[in-house]
Amino acid sequence: MNADKEKLLKYWKKDKIVKDAKILKALTDVKREEFIPDYQKKFAYDDIPLHIGEGQTISQPTTVAIMTQALSPKLGEKILEVGTGSGYQSAILSKIIGPKGKIITIEYLKELYLFAKKNLKDFKNVSVLHGDGSKGYPKEAPFDKIIVTAAASSIPKQLLGQLKTGGVLVIPVGDFIQEMQKITKTKEGLKKEKLGEFRFVPLVLEDDGK
Ligand code: SAH
Q1: Tens place of pLDDT for every residue, the chain, 210 residues?
Q2: CB of 59 sitting under 6 A from ligand 1
């Protein structure tokens, strides 16, 4: 295995960033270099975000590891991702939920939607859609888990509405710097956990939620 990749996997395990063996296996099996434009491939296992075109980036590997652990995907689950980008995060989730699970991932920019669709062609449990995902995807709701990989200034209400009771939403919230939040929808209400500060590209809101 690539030495830099091995280093990342060791770090996530040692520092308990990834606690679940299935998540570690998915991060081992999926090749990040396959989700990156050719001229950037040599940096695939540097722990940094990389340009994927259209002014967007594939998230830093450790950010993907942290968000996946927070989401704690399980076999057979139905998961919505808002912000497909390269498709890398979806590929990781796809391996964990298995053939009976389903990932719906929505990308706003046409070029990246096409890029991700190509990158994910062998991931049969992933549906890549083109459009505004900030309002979720009512047709396939409710979801076990929802992951948003672009920054929202507040949590879109429609997303919470499309989450099952017991479900988890992971989303970076804030305008300049974002706080990663893990929201668990319980019978008693919403439980919020804060996972630290991150930087994401902004989530496009087509009509500003009005
Ligand atoms: N998860 C990605 C990284 C995503 S970068 C990966 O693994 O590579 C964030 C992406 O969110 C960008 O591609 C951006 O175009 C997209 N995005 C922003 N607002 C959106 C919206 N309202 N609906 C769907 N996608 C959106």
Answers
A1: 899 999 999 999 999 999 999 999 999 999 999 999 999 999 999 999 999 999 999 999 999 999 999 999 999 999 999 999 999 999 999 999 999 999 999 999 999 999 999 999 999 999 999 999 999 999 999 999 999 999 999 999 999 999 999 999 999 999 999 999 999 999 999 999 999 999 999 999 886 544
A2: yes
Q: How far does the centroid of ligand 1 lie from the alpha carbon of residue 187, in Å?
A: 30
From the centroid of its chain, how far is CA 128?
A: 13
**What span, in angstroms and rounded, lies between the C-alpha atoms of 132 and 67?**
21
Instruction: Residue 187: give its domain's CATH number.
Output: 3.40.50.150
The rounded distance, in Å, linking the Cα atoms of 162 and 30 is: 28
Ligand 1 near 77 CB (within 6 A): no
Ligand 1 geometric centre to CA of 150 (Å): 5
Residue 209 lies in a domain: no
Provide the token pair at 29.
């099996």
Beta carbons of 32 and 44 less than 8 angstroms apart: yes
115 lines ligand 1 (CB under 6 A): no
Whether 210 maps to a domain, the answer reads no
